[in-house]
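User: ok so my PI wants both of these folded by tonight, can you help

Assistant: No problem, let's get them done. Here's the first:
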Amino acid sequence: MKTLYLLRHGKSDWESDFNSDHERGLAKRGIESTHRMGQYLIDYGFNVDLCLCSDAVRCKRTWELLSEMDSFASKVEFSNNVYEANSDKLFELIKETADEKESLLLIGHNPGLEELAEYLVLGDNLDELHNPLFSKFPTAAFLGLSLSVDSWRDITPGHGSIISYWIPGRKGR
């Protein structure tokens, strides 16, 4: 059994100076929601074997803020392959995870994360869906999926079971 967690970075800062999208940091709201996310993760008892994080500034900063609150991952890798990756690319990155890692946290961006979440939970039934399950997977959204496989390379669309879905600032999640 493998466990996959998806976390979208906190709200990005469009007001500060930056030379490229890759260099955008977090807005004040993004910092606040990341702190709320960190408290949720502490309360949840969250810990993973590996965190694979986009190397974009807003994702790295999201991880840094979380790390200041607790040690949530045994190992962290920052990767440009996560930045602007579509769901197919993210799916392939997950499948490349070493099998000794039982749990993986992926910190990235939309629309890739939203599409990946839909793909893992619903599979090829997306065309029949009128209301997306994770419509607008918002900033700082956290999703936990249980995957009934022994090897990451064996994951398939539509076989992820939701074990947690939480969005800072929303009740009942």
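One down. Here's the second:
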Amino acid sequence: MFYPKVIFETQSPFSGEIKVTESNGERQLIVGGFIQSKSLGKNGKSGGYWDAFAEFDPPDGGLGEVLILGLGAGTMVKLLTQKFGPVSIDAVEIDPVIADVAKKYFGLTEDNVKIIIDDAASYVNYSGEKYDLVCVDTFRWGETPSQCQKEEFYQNLTKVLKKNGVVIFNRIISDHEAEEIKKYADYLEKFFDRIEILAFPGATNSSNVIFYGKERN
């Protein structure tokens, strides 16, 4: 049996064990035993749930400013830049070790990206910036951090969205699939309009569900 080659590994005070593996020219970032990011394949896709973050129509007026909460190795940066061009991207990553790995092993050197080392919930609380698109992909050891599940976090997300802005969430839903998906979609309707689901469990060999919403006018 062929196993991916480990090309780098280290320990982070925040994230624990971090590995970069490579197989057939494609790389994965594994943090605490969970795949957190992937490089893009020759077809320009990740082959995972990340692809759904780029499968949407941009807001009226186009896509100008983007906020990514949970940078990882920059999979979404690559996908969005490839599809929409060099849009301005603020990428928030809580672990500076992971941000460094993204630059060194995943080629995250795009000029249109500004990496912000901070907690996602804290950033949307104090940030005075406004964005056309907010991507929420915050995980630690396979779980959404508690501070990113509070109502205050969702309220702050509404404040950083521009008029007609779009927000996209990644959630892991494995038990009681249909019931849990509906429950979370109903919760999002408290804050955003036009809730849609862009990817379901099993569509990408994972339990990830991608939810889409729009700024409430």
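The chain has a mean pLDDT of 90. The helical segments are 75-84, 96-105, 120-126, 151-160, 177-188. Good luck tonight!
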